[in-house]
Amino acid sequence: MRVVSLLPCATEILCRIGGASLLVGRSHHCDWPHEILDRPVLTAQNAGESPFTLDLELLGELRPDVILTQDLCAVCAIDLATVRAVAATMHPAPEIVSLNPTSMWDVLDDCLKVGSAVGRATQAERAMVELREGWWTAVDFVNPYSEGPEVLFLEWMDPPFCGGHWTPQLIHAAGGRHSINTAGAKSRRISPQEILAAAPERVIICPCGYGIPEIRSELAALQGQRWWPLLPALLEGENRVVLVDGHQMFNRPGPRLVDAFRWLTGWLNDRPELIPPGFPVESA
Predict the structure, then answer these.
(1) Nearest one of 133, 59, 140, 144 to 93, comparing CA atoms
(2) Model-level pTM?
(3) Which of 179, 182, 247, 277 has the fewest C-beta atoms under 10 angstroms from its C-beta?
(4) Which fold has domain 151-283?
(5) CA separation for the pair 103, 184 (Å, rounded)
(6) Which string of DSSP letters, residue by residue, matches 24-49?
(7) Which residues contact residue 276 at a Cβ distance below 8 angstroms, ignoring those fewer than 6 apart?
(8) How far apart are CA 208 and CA 246, in angstroms?
(9) Where in the chain is the domain with CATH 3.40.50.1980?
(10) In 3D, which of 37, 13, 9 has the Cα closest to residue 25?
(11) For residues 44 and 77, is the Cβ–Cβ distance under 8 A?
């Protein structure tokens, strides 16, 4: 079995189910786990209309049996229609597995989907059970009878975008509220008026694709906005506004989404024992 992954979370799923040795090619965004960094890179950033270019010659040389991709976000992978068109010219034609999760349950299903495609169904079932256990053992620490804090999850800072897809689900399950957007809805641009109306008591700054150093480099511009000091999160004590590595956590719907959820639950409920060691978070 020879697998090419054009999607970071699909690469993480493949490796989580023990399929790292099957990976023969990856996108330039696929950077976890580190053991796959020696695989050939098939994509590159493009300044043109399409965000990425795909090395068609290299793809042909790699002769994949399976191509992992998605049709959810154009920023993260080659357009699905392009992948299908390219695959149709190859002989034999590879199987295309497209992942389009919008919830945590979809992520668990994707483990099974990838496992079935690459001949590792048993390993995928085991991984799904482990991830599900990590989820529910964190949920046990949430008080279902207490209204949790309002949370603002900033997926982008300028202009501000709130988290969508699976992120509101994670916040609600962790004991928080996310009234500015609903579970399953796309992340969207939000106005200062909407932010102030939501009155967030906690703020997570987690821009997609940004590590903490990149967030800090642009944080002053966000903090300089007139509405920023009016947020309840800024007025109610320390550690209410945090920076989370958006390149690794929350924005990739893969196995590490459970790590992000366990951190979130621990942070909102003051249960530090839930937080994974080395979780990439800092106070603003």
Answers:
(1) 59
(2) 0.93
(3) 277
(4) Rossmann fold (3.40.50)
(5) 6
(6) EEE-TT---SGGGTTSPB-EEE-SSS
(7) 259, 262, 263
(8) 5
(9) 3-102, 151-283
(10) 37
(11) no
Q: Which amino acid is at 134?
A: G
Q: Which stretches within the chain are classed as H helix?
A: 8-16, 56-62, 80-88, 104-117, 121-139, 167-173, 192-198, 212-223, 232-235, 257-268
pLDDT in tens, 139-196: 999 998 888 999 999 999 999 999 999 999 999 999 999 999 999 899 999 999 999 9
Three-state SS at 112 = helix
Q: What is the pLDDT of residues 113-154, one digit of tens each?
A: 999 999 999 999 999 999 999 999 999 999 988 889 999 999
Q: Are 268 and 278 in contact (CB under 8 A)?
A: no
Q: Which residue from 105, 70, 66, 118 is spatially nearest to 87, judged by alpha carbons?
A: 66
Q: Which fold has domain 3-102?
A: Rossmann fold (3.40.50)
